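Sequence in, structure out.
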Amino acid sequence: MTIELKYLAWVSVLTALIWIPYIVNSVTVRGLTDALGYTPHLKPLAPWATRMRAAHYNAVENLVVFATLVLVAHSSGANSALTAFAAMAYFWARVVHLIGYTFAFPWVRTISFLAGFLCQMAIAGQILLGATAR
């Protein structure tokens, strides 16, 4: 398994687990029946849980791009030291983004999001530059 695929798996696992803390908060705040039902007027989540939910949505949206790029790089043979580093850095950027967003650390959410985007573009560049060189 390539490093890129390994980090794709780690990013996927991270994204798959993010919902757990904010759903636990939902059950704690609203009670099991309201948290699982369709009650029209729900009690608000804790601010950290609301931010974590938004971070989860952002992670899902960006997983589509990251996974596509990693799979294209893998299938086209565009893997390199750069794509391996970018995949690893992307994973850690997403971890930092989740923490920064959840706990509202100033600038951390934006900088870590930008770092993840640059990792995606590094992989895309490797794919596209490799395609023109062939």
